[in-house]
Amino acid sequence: MPEIFSEGKIDFDKFQQLFSDNISTKPDRYHLNWAGKSQAYQQLQIPTQKTLTPCVEESVDFEQTQNIFIEGENLEVLKALQKSYFNSIKMIYIDPPYNTGNDFVYNDNFAQNQTDYQAQTGEIGEDGFLKKAFRKNAKENGHFHSNWLNMMLPRLHLARNLLKDDGVIFISIDDNEQAQLKLLCDEVFGEENFVAELIWDKQHSQQQGLFKTYHEYVLLYAKNINNHKNIKGGTGVIDAGAIKKISKSNPESEFTFPAGVKFEAKDGVELKGTFGDSEKVTVVKGCFRAINGRTLEEVTLSAGWTQKKQMTEFFAGNEVYDTKGQKVIEFYFSSTGKLKCRKERTSITPPTLLPKYGMSSLHTDNLKELMNATVFNNPKPLPMLSDFIRWFTGRADIILDFFSGSGSTAHAILETNLAEGKKNTFISVQLAESLNVDNEDQKEAVEFCLNLGVPATIAEITKERIRRAGSQILQKNEENRPLDVGFKVFKLTDSHFKQWQSPIAESLAEQLEMFIDNVKENTELQAMLYEILLRLGLKLTCNVRYENNIFWIEDEKSQHYAILLEHIDENLLNSVINVQPQKVVALDRLFAGNDALKKNAELQMKDANIAFFVI
């Protein structure tokens, strides 16, 4: 009786429902539930105490690039990004663990301090790197699906917050969790925002079993489906009729066309009265005659126009776009006098069965050629990711991948930028998860890292893949276009400011003593700066300029901020006020107990209508 089992164990509620005379008569409702769901929602609400610390030495073109690579656990990273990137991401692509029984689910712990928990379970080594970020989720453990759902739920909720109102998320998955993921996404994004379930034919070779499984899925959801009328793509032009049969829903009306409208009838042909089969047109006023491929004079026609508003705008000399965003090139008459509309094709209707992008081994070989080693097996196809990017992004959007893995998403973004002259940027997130030298599939990757002189972690391979992809793309840039192939590296770390009720303070007096200077020892200025940017809700790619002990910040809206981390006096305050920034932030320790200077600063900023914060 399979219906009384759930995740390998007897579900006693179902057992009672089948065999007991005492059956609950409470109204039933359709919903997705599992063990640990309420705790997963609790985890979602817990604010992070972490921050993102810049690592310039591992970056490429740190000062100029708009791309970001973040090394760290993705749940905490997503929380750290909430304020700065809320409603900012156009597209998310993730390739999470498929929960095959041989892969892993992250140890999200709901009560114990995460550092203590990881140390206790041996997940963090002496060097501080995560030795195993994901624990094995065996099918026999009794919470097989629940563990996976608990891992995914908070991450998807946080990801949704980051999406723009016209943003989309693609999620790769296979049969193990496809059913659960669909229900989970319906809950998180709303089933009304389901766009499509795409089928990717992996074109596998020999397989065992009743059926050969050649495909995986990519679930596609919109943040708001109402903001998506079409899918971008296509080239050339479209010719479509601009009249229909006259009916109650498409009533007859008059429209006056100017002289000189394109007319494909033979020279001298004139149409009079009412003509056409089912789509009737009547000449109301003027002469409807073709001369040199154009209408001879102004003519008023009556018909069942389907695009009358666009016709009015077009003949008034305005640029016109249809409901799919396709530009109207012209309205013209066919040889039979039927009005047609010619548009630039800028949208497509792709099938849910994706094109064949080649066997997985092809993409493994391509990556091997780039890296000179087999560092990842079965990376996602760059052409598939490039299609997703083309369909739903514009010319300068942000794309997020918080299960970055081999770095295929970042690579695909750089490729499409080159091919189409775009300036899309990426945020890639990947754990510094240690590779296992005893794992036959990872030996070559471990050796690759050792040869580079870097820790043997997945994140190190991801960064190197993006570096090499950028170099390769620059070599292909024959037109010498300005391309951004760099990336800023940030690492998830503890806050650089002391936390209230720190576990190392043994008394209130000691706690208060700590907060005379709330900056942790040996904290670098740049580390403090970027933590403050996140607290202010500013992006990590803000323009930063350092001058005369002041960090000047300019955001994407051209608003200016001044951040004081080293020194403060009357002259410095006056120089800041003269520039009139939106906000000024200063460290409390800079005042060194000089309350008069602090109060004066507050009053001067208030008089200048500048927001002033002391931390």
TrEMBL record:
For this entry, list what GO says about its biological process.
methylation
Instruction: Determine if Ubl conjugation is one of this entry's keywords.
Output: no
Keywords for the protein's UniProt record, in alphabetical order:
Methyltransferase, S-adenosyl-L-methionine, Transferase
Q: What is its EC number?
A: 2.1.1.72
Superkingdom as given in the UniProt entry: Bacteria
List, alphabetically, the Gene3D superfamilies matched.
Vaccinia Virus protein VP39 (3.40.50.150)
The enzyme class is transferase
- Domain DNA methylase N-4/N-6: residue ranges: 89-417
Q: Does the keyword Methyltransferase apply?
A: yes
Reaction it catalyzes: a 2'-deoxyadenosine in DNA + S-adenosyl-L-methionine = an N(6)-methyl-2'-deoxyadenosine in DNA + S-adenosyl-L-homocysteine + H(+)
GO MF entries: DNA binding; N-methyltransferase activity; site-specific DNA-methyltransferase (adenine-specific) activity
Name one matching Pfam family. Answer: N6_N4_Mtase
The coiled-coil regions, if any, are none
The text of the family note is: Belongs to the N(4)/N(6)-methyltransferase family.
Q: What is this protein called?
A: site-specific DNA-methyltransferase (adenine-specific)
